[in-house]
Design brief:
The protein has about 425 residues and is an alpha+beta fold. It has 13 helices and 17 strands.
């Protein structure tokens, strides 16, 4: 039997889980410091939740199957559709604006590279009910705050920012029908990943000839807002909202993190406005996180639209980056005490001691088998214990136990009543 976990997945041994817990604690601390509430949902969803637009890469990456009731179900590949479903479920009872975050496990059957696996955890923060770019600015500030917490600076990480309205303005000027816009975004997002000839047929099907594609690529090479204003006009909605967003970034003190990059469109069809993705300035890893505005997602599920934006931040890439930078913490196991009975005749007494210490909020391991003192000291070192509590027959008869501080080496007898 092959004892490895399924390809593209991970086992989390205790030392691995300590690191994951450390990362998640930073995710949660940042989200809560920005006033967001945590939510969760089943990992299994209805497949129809993800079949939105033909051509989206995600539709070919689903872990989907028919359950025993004949229903088509899928292991969630992302959290935003689930969030939309839950918002619609709440309906008018949901107090807006809503600021929610989650750390779900997500599944995508995709080609694996460094920083990309088939299952991963993804920190999500979303704002529902705010139409202005103030919401995007808040999310970008949260991302920057997280990076700063784990020791990364704006010299290590940048956040590319653009708007779907940039590409929309360009393709409209080329005469491409509005109904093809979402599909064009999906194809443009693929241009950085696959050779142009590989999607030439898809482009032709959308009515894009080589000249049009060249014009789109030229427009998406813009890297400053003045240049964008020269192409679209200073009063164009994309230019106005991006200037406002960068002004807010100055107020947040995160302007050094942000760069305008018109090539950012994101591959999911539901984005409608500002889009962004964080990148490794050392160019050794794929996008660290990404997100944007999705004001029209709810109507695709039959509900009334609400302005919304959010981001997804995977755990795999950031851990790789922190490893490269030497920023991963050393997280040895920790334990307050190990309780060792010196003989089976004091086992009940040792059990009482362990129970007392646990009731006081300490993490305590009770040695469950007959063991010698030498073994206990080695085991305590392996477990990262602060103290060794020795329950011996003579001490117990005197109403005490021996407590040894494993850092200083000092030991003393403590009255049982003072534990």
């Amino acid at each position: 039997m092959d004892l490895s976990s399924p390809r593209g997945t991970r086992d989390f041994f205790p030392e691995d889980l300590r690191l994951r817990t450390w990362l998640f604690e930073h995710f949660r601390a940042v989200a809560r410091s920005f006033g967001f509430e945590e939510y969760d949902a089943p990992v299994l969803e209805s497949t129809e939740l993800y079949i939105r637009k033909a051509g989206e890469e995600i539709t070919g990456q689903l872990y989907n199957f028919e359950d025993k009731g004949g229903r088509q179900v899928t292991l969630r590949p992302e959290m935003t559709p689930t969030l939309a479903r839950m918002v619609l479920q709440k309906g008018g009872s949901l107090s807006l604006p809503a600021r929610w975050f989650s750390i779900p496990q997500c599944w995508r059957y995709e080609r694996m590279t460094r920083g990309r696996k088939r299952e991963h955890y993804q920190w999500n923060m979303d704002v529902i009910g705010v139409a202005g770019v103030e919401a995007e600015a808040e999310l970008l500030a949260a991302i920057a705050a997280f990076f700063a917490r784990v020791g990364l600076g704006s010299a290590d990480i940048g956040i590319k920012v653009s708007s779907r309205r940039v590409l929309q303005g360009v393709v409209s000027g080329l005469g491409v029908p509005d109904e093809h816009f979402a599909a064009v975004c999906v194809l443009v997002d693929k241009l950085e990943k696959v050779p142009r000839e590989a999607i030439a047929g898809d482009m032709a099907a959308l009515g894009l000839d080589d000249a049009m594609v060249d014009a789109i690529i030229d427009a998406l090479s813009l890297r400053d807002l003045d240049g964008l204003a020269g192409v679209l006009g200073a009063d164009h909605a994309a230019v106005v909202e991006l200037r406002r967003l960068f002004a807010l970034a100055e107020a947040y003190g995160i302007a050094d993190w942000l760069v305008f990059d018109a090539s950012v469109v994101r591959g999911l069809a539901y984005y409608t406005g500002v889009v962004f993705e964080a990148f490794d300035r050392g160019a050794t890893l794929r996008a660290v996180c990404g997100g944007g505005r999705y004001d029209r997602l709810l109507s695709t599920f039959g509900g009334a639209d609400q302005p919304a934006c959010g981001f997804g931040f995977g755990d795999v890439v950031i851990l790789e980056l922190l490893k490269d930078k030497g920023l991963l913490p050393d997280l040895p196991p920790t334990l307050d005490a190990i309780v060792l009975p010196l003989g089976e005749d004091v086992r009940d007494a040792a059990t009482q001691v362990a129970t007392t210490l646990r009731s006081k909020g300490q993490s305590v391991e009770l040695v469950l088998e007959p063991k010698k003192m030498k073994w206990a000291f080695k085991h305590a070192t392996r477990r990262g214990a602060r103290t060794l509590v020795i329950v011996g027959p003579d001490e117990w008869a005197a109403g005490t136990v021996r407590v040894k501080d494993l850092e200083s080496g000092e030991q003393r007898d403590v009255a049982v009543g003072d534990l």
